[in-house]
Write a structure and sequence with these properties.
With about 200 residues, the protein is of the alpha+beta class. It has two domains: about 50 residues; about 110 residues, Immunoglobulin-like (Sandwich). It contains two helices and eight strands. The longest helix has about 40 residues.
Amino acid sequence: MSDSRGSVLKLGWTGRYVAFRRRVIILGAVVLAFTTLACEMGVEPASPEASEAPAGPTPTGTPGPTPTMVASRTPLGHIEPPPDTPTPTAPVLADCFQSFQFAVWQDLDGDGVWGESEPALAGVEVRPPGSFAQMWGDPFLSGADGQLTIRTWYPGLCTVQDHTFRAVPPEGYELTTPASITIATTSIDLAYEAQLGFRPVSP
């Protein structure tokens, strides 16, 4: 009888021990699952010391430990976008390029109009104004066809201006058109034309 009761008691303690181990294993699995979920959600689990220590003064009047702030973790695979920074805009650089073309001819009848029978006059000098930053075409002399093109440039947008060109009569000729030609430029047009007539001087 005593042996049977002893075996029953042994089986009872063994069953209780096995049940206790199962509860410990289940509790550990639950804690591990909650810890993993908290890490994935970016929540830092508080340490036991921080959770057990009360904030503020203790009953004895001495200040208690100050609770520490725990920074949240960034979930895996999440990339923070860069802050929006304005893109600097490059300044617009404007330049004004213009051309001035002169037709020079022998005005035999002196009417100031280039007739079909009147020939071109080469070697006539046209002096441009000094209002341009740079010019191309120097020496500014008419060619065999009587044409002379002066190309100019200055920084900034083209504006409304008056540019005065002066013609220099070659030896043995006099002008039948004004010696000074003032050309009014605009902010839109880039090419301008003018005519210069000369006739031989009677000896």
